[in-house]
Structure prediction request, 467 residues.
Amino acid sequence: MYESLPTITATRTDATVRTANRRGSAWLLAMLLIPAIFFSAANAEYGDVVINEVSEEAGMRPVVFPHWFHRIRFRCKVCHADLGFKFEAGGNDITMLKIIDGEYCGACHNGNIAWSVENCNLCHSGKPGTKTQVHESTLQKLVSPVKR
Amino acid sequence: MRSTQLSISCLSLTLLLAWAAPALAESGAETYRTKCIQCHGTGVLNAPKLGVAADWVERTKKGKAVLTRNAINGINQMPPKGGSLQLSGAEIEAVVVYMLAQLPGDGAAAKAKPVSTAAKTAKADSAAAAPKRVAEVAKPKPKPSAKKPKPRGKPVNTFNRLMRPPSQRNLPPTRDGIHDASSVETAALQHPKEAFGPMPKSNSGNRVDWVAALSKGIIDPRFDLEDDTKKPIVLDLNIVREVKGSMPDVVYPHKQHTEWLDCSNCHPSIFIPKKGANNISMASILLGQQCGVCHGRVAFPVSECRKCHSKNKSKVAKK
Prediction:
């Protein structure tokens, strides 16, 4: 039944979870044994998300989203329930068009609640070449380069 | 198109200057006195000081147009329009002209200069229009290129590569390795340490105890985008999960979670709201599923075993 759901929601259904449980231990062990040779010298803040799904292809720097800055001002619920941000870096298909239309970041970054989209480089501030990922996450630190 | 307009306006400005100079200089002077003086009068944040030739030597070489553009867009530590976003381009230009005219022995300098304005004034003036932006932009930032973290040995071979020394924690955006330090705007972003100063500390994650900061009222994040009076409906219900093996049982507190989250964030997509329906394992959590969707990414990481595994098995019968 779950298998018939669209992929995007299926990422966190129980079907996947159960699969992960079954194979989790083996995976974990295997992954921890992979030499962690891909560590960057980054000292990012815990939870900083780099989003580079379309930015660099379009000639802009990747976006850095600082979770810490936003959670001082808003509870998780505002973005993750009301605005519909999925709990997954790169899982949201965010484009400037949607932002200008008031979706995603544009719900606040409209010159009303927060500064507006003409301040391109305040968001597009990532080091060129940085991939979409959650910095300092367990996956990034322990399991290594799955998302790179 | 825009550049044509700009050149035309520059040209006409130059022509006008001959006879309109006094009026223009006056408005430039006025703006300087009310806005720019706070940085350019004091030299704070390395702002070139008014009338100090040494500060201006390199800058005047760029020409007035470039200086005006930089002043409008922001440069180095100077935020766009010095933080006074209500100023028009023409007003900025007037200030540039005024400031250049104050240089010793070079009243005629047709070159320009950056300008800026006082972040503080801007904060007050335009707070209503763009509160958050000003707050961010106005933060003084550390010098971007002054100090670089000294290169360390290969991370793999350093003592506990996952444990950063205090000097490597909560670094400013210009030094954190994921921001482009060469971008002027990066320097305008807030420094985490500045925000975390008053908050309770913790030993992991952001090195800040978010739950304590919230419960003590040190931070007051909104629960609704528009309405700051809306408060979460907190559910005070602990779920005890018996754990196989020797670890203490897990006590899951709905209370702290519902302070931040909506029920729909977890139910039913991540956890089926029914006792015994969820088979949770550390393996899947470490892989970023179940509790690991947040814990290990944003919420306190899984290294804090005892924050969840908090109910000692030898004590008190479980519910």
